[in-house]
Write a structure and sequence with these properties.
alpha/beta; D-Maltodextrin-Binding Protein, domain 2; 5-stranded mixed β-sheet; 34% helix; ABC transporter substrate-binding protein; NMT1/THI5
């Protein structure tokens, strides 16, 4: 959630038709010089927030420096298309997700996912308490405020598994107001942010349906780089993945160093929201469940990638002839 607008989904929407980079000034940045003598540029998928905490923590506590890496973190935000930045050479790594990786693969963009820090996608639906919306299936036929990005991510899943219909969708306009005014409606959100906002703006705790707990299975907060960078600078990639994983472990234990840098980049991010989000990261097991429970933070597996790919093929979101193995690489992970 952005402390500026509250919008989430545009950070996962991107155009893959070779259009110009969307953020003013990004397209003019020079291509990366040789690794080892340059700053490693990480671009986040939204304004600085706790969902990026491990990366800021690794920078703030000197973990990146200990690995011999000089790292610069740049915020994403409204209108910043991070995958275009990566493909265009204006970033070395970006934060993405499984849907981003499959969309890039389908578009023929040579990107590769090298780590997955969120084992669960934080995406959820929020409903009002006390109106009979106690189970996800209770939202069938009810108005739900969603953004366009849902059409290529979780909405096909809800249609197929829970019988939702396109007639239910209402355009999410970056505000909680429509949801708060209609107690029989629902709204998209992240478990790490929107419940807090509803409590602040609406004065009640919403019913929260984390979609990962209902079978929606993408990785989130993934690290993406170009296939060329991964092939030419494998040691840099491996070090960056390992250092970022350590950063997340440190952030879960004591987020204060990372939060300090987050608020430097995004002064609108409040202490209360950072505290809520940090606790939600732990409560929902976003970093430590799934593959990470046995393999460590950042883990990915072939089985998980193939299962998600097959789910998206069945939902007609991606084409069946794609080779999903081209979307990710496991050998950079610490457990590999």
């Amino acid at each position: 959630m952005s402390a500026v607008t509250g919008e989430r989904w545009p950070r996962r929407d991107f155009v893959v038709n070779g259009a110009a980079l969307l953020a003013v000034g990004w397209g003019s940045r020079p291509a990366s010089p040789a690794a080892g003598s340059k700053v490693i540029r990480l671009v986040t998928n939204w304004y600085a927030q706790a969902e990026h905490g491990g990366f800021y923590q690794a920078l703030a506590t000197g973990i990146y420096a200990r690995y011999g890496l000089q790292v610069q973190i740049r915020m994403g935000g409204t209108g910043v298309n991070v995958l275009q930045l990566l493909a265009g050479g204006a970033a070395d790594f970006v934060i993405g997700s499984s849907p981003d990786a499959l969309a890039a693969l389908q578009a023929g963009i040579p990107l590769v996912t090298v780590a997955a820090f969120f084992q669960k996608d934080p995406q959820c639906l929020l409903a009002h308490p006390g109106v009979g919306h106690d189970h996800l299936e209770d939202l069938r036929g009810k108005p739900i405020w969603v953004s366009p990005g849902a059409n290529l991510t979780y909405w096909p899943f809800l249609r197929a598994k829970f019988g939702f219909s396109d007639e239910q969708k209402r355009p999410y306009n970056f505000s909680l107001a429509p949801f708060l005014l209609d107690k029989y409606s629902a709204q998209q959100g992240y478990v790490t942010a929107e419940p807090f906002r509803v409590r602040q703006e609406g004065g009640f705790d919403p019913v929260v349906f984390p979609l990962a707990d209902y079978g929606y299975s993408p990785y989130a907060t993934t690290l993406e780089t170009t296939r060329r960078f991964a092939e030419q600078q494998p040691e840099v990639v491996q070090k960056f993945v390992a250092a970022s994983s350590e950063g997340w472990q440190s952030y879960l234990q004591d987020p204060r160093p990372g939060n300090h840098l987050i608020q430097q980049d995004n002064p609108n991010m409040s202490d209360d929201l950072l505290a809520y989000s940090h606790q939600a990261l732990k409560d929902y097991g976003l970093l430590t469940s799934g593959d990470a429970a046995t393999l460590g933070i950042g883990a990915m597996t072939d089985e998980r990638w193939h299962r998600y790919f097959e789910d998206m093929v069945a939902l007609q979101v991606v084409e069946s002839q794609l080779d999903v193995r081209q979307a990710y690489a496991l050998h950079f992970l610490p457990h590999a």
